[in-house]
Amino acid sequence: MNNHAIPIITIDGPSASGKGTVAYLAAQKLGFHYLDSGALYRLVALRALQDNIDASDEMQLAEIAGKINFSFENSLVWLDGQNVDSAIRAESCGEFASRIAHFPALRAALLQRQRDFCRLPGLVTDGRDMGSVVFPDAALKIYLTASVEERANRRYKQLKEKGINASMPNLLQMLRERDQRDSDRALSPLKQHIDAQLLDTSSLSIDEAVKQVLDSYAAAELHARARTNPVK
Ligand SMILES: Nc1ncnc2c1ncn2[C@@H]1O[C@H](COP(=O)(O)OP(=O)(O)O)[C@@H](O)[C@H]1O
Ligand SMILES: Nc1ccn([C@H]2C[C@H](O)[C@@H](COP(=O)(O)OP(=O)(O)O)O2)c(=O)n1
């Protein structure tokens, strides 16, 4: 379970909002560990696609989630010792991940594996349910978003930089469908929870978004300290 002595910042939000970029940079600045929880769902999706597992086979998917042998090293994602970073970043893999992410047994199998990333001196993590389910005691919870047009634009540029062809109308449609699927599921849906601070980055640069997270964290820390050591 979460340990109050270990500070955690959770950054949840929709696809291509910049969660991963902002969470990673905030973790670097603070010297904290970083967990990209979406990568775990993508790893399960990739292995299922490789093994021809049906998207409706909850038990097999949960078994994969409990067993897959992965690591995050040198800013890359490894599966059974193979670099699968590009493979899991494909839109098709993200889409499959979103289609299987509603299964309770799959989410349960990933729960402790995600919590195991919580280590001193702290953790910054991004996903859909980091603040609501996986780390409910986080020191700071952010709901990071941007307009769907801006997100499609960001994803388009990101894919282009990697030499991957994409069309804006297709990306817009895929993002809308993924948002809807991730928000409509019964278990751990994508939504801004009451205790999460909204950070709309539609007109913010990456540096400005990171600064806002760090400022909010400093304020949350001050507040927590004042509560534990009230001035007499
Ligand atoms: N505030 C921002 N302004 C402009 N581009 C951004 C911003 N935040 C992120 N990006 C870019 O958008 C793309 C998607 O970001 P990413 O972190 O992969 O999103 P997510 O993890 O939410 O899917 C990346 O190329 C990233 O550099
Ligand atoms: N904590 C999480 C993280 C991801 N998921 C699911 C739902 C998402 O559409 C997919 C892929 O997530 P990921 O964060 O990698 O996707 P984006 O980078 O935001 O496009 O996995 C989830 O259900 N819960």
Automatic annotation (TrEMBL):
KW Cytoplasm (keyword) present: yes
Keywords, sorted A to Z: ATP-binding, Cytoplasm, Kinase, Nucleotide-binding, Transferase
EC number: 2.7.4.25
CDD domains xrefs: CMPK
A matching Pfam family: Cytidylate_kin
GO molecular function: ATP binding; CMP kinase activity; dCMP kinase activity
Gene3D superfamilies: P-loop containing nucleotide triphosphate hydrolases
Main location: cytoplasm
Catalyzed reactions: CMP + ATP = CDP + ADP; dCMP + ATP = dCDP + ADP
Domain of life per record: Bacteria
Residue sites binding ATP per the record: G13, P14, S15, A16, S17, G18, K19, G20, T21
Domain Cytidylate kinase: 9-216
GO cellular component, one term: cytosol
A GO BP entry: pyrimidine nucleotide metabolic process
Statement: the UniProt record of this protein carries the keyword Transferase: yes
Subcellular location: Cytoplasm
Matching NCBIfam families: cmk
HAMAP family listed in its UniProt record: Cytidyl_kinase_type1
Similarity comment: family membership: Belongs to the cytidylate kinase family. Type 1 subfamily.
The protein's name: Cytidylate kinase
Lineage of producing organism: Bacteria, Pseudomonadati, Pseudomonadota, Betaproteobacteria, Nitrosomonadales
